[in-house]
Write a structure and sequence with these properties.
This protein has 346 residues and is mainly beta. The chain is 3% helix and 53% strand. The protein has 2 helices and 16 strands. The chain has a 16-stranded antiparallel β-barrel. β4 and β5 form a beta hairpin. The protein is globular. It starts with 17 loop residues before the first strand and ends with a strand.
């Protein structure tokens, strides 16, 4: 985790108001050994999408304001992440990474109401690679929201080791609600830290971004644990489970277990090994058009080198293994790629 520098603080009132200006950029080179002629990685990959070229995955500038009773964030972005994850949004909104405001609604308790475009309450990975243990995103992350739009009411206890939140949302990774959708979506999150080196999280989503006339209701559950027993080792274990309930039709569950083990080698270097599996036989999330749907496992090995507190070089080898031939135009059931990146925070 990098320290955020380059901040500008203004004492605008007695409650120690603060404005922080920051930025981030991540440039990468990826090589897919299936050598796709259109330079596109597999369809279920939404980050580091381009093959055999230097490209920009994500760059943003952000202004964050905090005071005792008010907070807000505005971040504008460009890059492959924005291009692929916000393709369904109106063009004027496709560069919005965050745009939200929050107010403290209780004098006695740490109770906040936030509204706008916010990072997702689901999962342990974000769009910002520098905040994640691995260079690329997992299938679990690619198959669930990176962002959400709506309102969130959150309460943190006095020990600051337990946070609970309820959310009213526009849909499943949506800024603008699609045509034909009137019903809201809802979510919940409970994040508990029983010890300084252990985090337990449960999040869910109930709703739909499909037209109401289709009668689709999505129920999704996300569980994860982050445990760092000492300053050398860390482990993340997660499990996602979802189901789309569709009128007059049975549609099965999808699920994905994942485990990441990280080893700190020294002050500058870390290794991370990830194993994952995604079973979406009914193609609720990832469409393949094959006999067995999307049933894919993944294995990756990641190396990080921190150049300084603001810059990091990363390289990762990653393999996918599918039950059906879904790679290389439906000719292969496996895929291997190398990904190198350089990210800088300022």
């Amino acid at each position: 985790m990098f320290l955020l520098v380059g901040s500008i603080n203004y004492a605008w009132s007695q409650d120690s108001s603060k404005l922080v200006l920051s930025g981030y950029a991540e440039v990468y080179y990826g090589y897919d050994f299936s050598n796709p002629s259109n330079h596109e990685r597999p369809s279920f990959v939404y980050n580091h999408k381009r093959h055999n070229e230097v490209n920009l995955n994500l760059a943003y500038v952000k202004a964050a304001y905090t005071s005792a009773k008010v907070r807000s964030n505005l971040a504008l972005m460009v890059g492959n992440y924005a291009q692929n994850n916000l393709a369904a949004e109106p063009s004027l909104l496709q560069q919005v990474l965050e745009a939200n405001i929050g107010v403290k609604v209780s004098k006695k308790h740490n109770l906040w109401l936030d509204a706008g475009v916010m990072p997702s309450h689901i999962g342990f990975e974000s769009a910002i690679s520098a905040d994640c243990w691995t260079n690329s995103r997992s299938m679990a992350a690619e198959g669930s929201p990176y962002f959400e739009t709506g309102a969130k009411l959150s309460l943190t206890n006095k020990k600051e080791n337990l946070t609970a939140a309820v959310l009213l949302l526009n849909g499943w990774q949506r800024i603008q609600r699609p045509d034909g959708v009137q019903r809201p979506s809802v979510g919940m999150q409970i994040n508990y830290k029983p010890a300084s080196n252990l985090t337990l999280n449960y999040s869910n989503f109930i709703g739909s971004d499909q037209p109401d006339s289709l009668g689709v209701v999505r129920m999704f559950h996300d569980f994860y644990m982050i445990y760092e027993p000492n300053n050398k080792w860390g482990i993340i274990a997660g499990f996602d489970l979802g189901k789309d309930f569709i009128e007059d039709r049975e549609n099965g569950f999808w699920y994905t277990p994942i485990i990441v083990v990280r080893r700190t080698l020294n002050a500058h270097s870390k290794l991370a090994l990830r194993g994952e599996y995604y079973n979406d036989a009914n193609e609720n999330i990832f469409a393949t058009g094959t006999k067995n749907g999307f049933q894919t496992s993944g294995l990756s090995l990641n190396y990080d080198y921190s150049i300084n507190s603001n810059a990091m070089f990363r390289i990762e080898g990653k393999s996918f293994f599918s039950k059906d031939p879904i790679f290389d135009g439906g000719r292969e059931d496996n895929n291997f790629a190398l990904l190198a990146s350089l990210n800088v925070r300022f």
